[in-house]
Amino acid sequence: DTAVSQTPKYLVTQMGNDKSIKCEQNLGHDTMYWYKQDSKKFLKIMFSYNNKELIINETVPNRFSPKSPDKAHLNLHINSLELGDSAVYFCASSQTNTGRSETQYFGPGTRLLVL
Amino acid sequence: GNSVTQMEGPVTLSEEAFLTINCTYTATGYPSLFWYVQYPGEGLQLLLKATKADDKGSNKGFEATYRKETTSFHLEKGSVQVSDSAVYFCALRPTGGGNKLTFGTGTQLKVEL
Questions:
Q1: pLDDT score recorded for residue B97
Q2: 20 to 30 A Cα–Cα from A108, which one of A25, B36, B37, B50?
Q3: Residue B61: its pLDDT value, please?
């Protein structure tokens, strides 16, 4: 069974549309994350939730809205998509958000292309 | 603020060559340090980690030593294989609350026969 799964794997859409990406983890972890990886492979955290509570919210346009219905799921909704939103979005999870050596487990990524 | 600097790639090596990928960091206190690997078309996987000065992380023949005096965490492997071709990311987790990882820009490794 996949530990951290994301859907869809690929997403091609037009500028101005609204889209969602879903993430689920079956590891029993308390903490989940969204990262954005740009075309140069640079990886930057966007959000983190611990037990459904938002704990990290980086400088991200408010067109991006994460939602955590339960601690096993963290979805990302994007309004009014722009060309610059094209990237690979990775979901990740960790047991907690406090351990010094916490390993984060990454999903396979969602490749978003905005035309 | 916290930052991680990695050597630019791509790094191209022949099979069985020695690998070093340099990583230096800027952070206050005593961060934890990590190397993650991303194989083509996949998400990141933890390769190794170290949480305090002079700790050595190792896995699958890769090693990295946490050097506080030089603020470095260089990745090494004695003999690379074609299957090691991937992008390698150095990352730090600062001391204090939260589990926010700061990543370097990644170094692509290509190993040829």
A1: 52
A2: B50
A3: 97
